[in-house]
Every structure is written in structure tokens, then in C-alpha cells.
Amino acid sequence: MAQMAETEKTTTGWLLLIYTVPAEPSRTRAFIWRELKKVGAISIRDGVWALPESKATSVAFRRIAAKVQEFDGEATLAEGASIDAERVEAIRSASQTARTAEYEELAREAEHFLGHVQRESEHRNFNFAEMEELEQDLGKLRNWRDQVKARDYFGVEGRGRAADLLARCESALTVFLDEAFSQEDGTQ
Fold it and tell me: What are the tens digits of pLDDT across the range 166-176?
């Protein structure tokens, strides 16, 4: 929420990263593209990406620009850019659509996790390997949530559902672990 509040204060200014990288090797272009996607940047046109201006997004674009230059490319970072209202709405809409899809996918995976915990509880499969796997799976879901949340600059409705499902996952795992320890201790 703090990031969203910071971004809302600064959406009058935009960061634009304008870059080119050599055509070969293609893995460098793919690397830059993945880095831009990780920070939630939106492509305005070929080689031009935008983010709402904040300290965090400025650091992210500077890091990517440095990588472009490391790959023998050219990068220009425009700070405080003014973008027409129609384009701002297109950027905001594209960002919200991307984050909504990510939160929906996260929610589906959280539902699968809940189903997995329920099946293991019903089968009374309380072994160490299963407990460790479930803890790792929940950790992955938390990390994924944090990554999506970090690039959710405009706040989308799917965030709340994903958060609720993750809270249910945490509760389900706690109950599963309590049952497992009770069984191990012979107290059940």
C-alpha cells in the first residue's frame, strides 16, 4: 500500500527508458525484456518503456540502463516526463490488466495449494518430506505475491482476493503442521 500511495503522489511525472541493444546475441534483448517486465514497466513503443516516477522505479530503470550499456547498447533515462492523458490511461490500463492477470494466476495457485493441503490431511500423510514441500510451496507463493505487489503501481482489485487466499493457505498449513506434530508426538 505504501508503494501505491507513493506512486499516486508522483503519477504526474513519468520515467521513460529509451534503449537499443545489439541484435546479437538475442539473449541480451531477452534479458532486458525480462528485467523490464519484472519491474512492471509498460512498453510504449519499440525500445521505449514507461513507469510512474518514484525513487524505487528510478533505481530500477537506472539498473536496467546500466545493464543495457554493459551489453554494448545505448540507454537514455528521461525523468519527470509529461505524457498526454490518453497515453497515461493506456499505460495505466495495460499495467492494471497485467497485474490483474498475475493476481488471478496467483489466486489459482493458492487454491491448488489449499487443495493439496486438504488432500494430504485427509490421507493423514504427515511425513517430513511432505511438510517440507508444503512449507517451500507456501514460501514460493509469498515471494510471488511480493513480486506482483511491488509492480502493482495502480492497485487492482485482485490484490485483496490473492491476499485472502494466501492467508487461508498460511492457516491451512499451520493446522496441517500442528496435526503432523501431534501425530509425531503421539498426542492425537
Answer: 999 999 999 98
What is this structure's pTM? 0.82
Domain borders along the chain are 2-83, 96-185
Residue pair 150/4 in contact by the 8 Å Cβ criterion: no
Closest among 75, 72, 53, 54 to 64, alpha carbons compared: 75
As a whole number of Å, the CA-based R_g of the chain is 21
125: its cell numbers: 500423510
* Amino acid in position 37: K
CATH architecture of 2-83: 2-Layer Sandwich (3.30)
CA 43 – CA 39 distance, rounded (Å) = 12
Q: In what order do the strands lie in the sheet with 48-52?
A: 42-45, 48-52, 14-20, 74-81
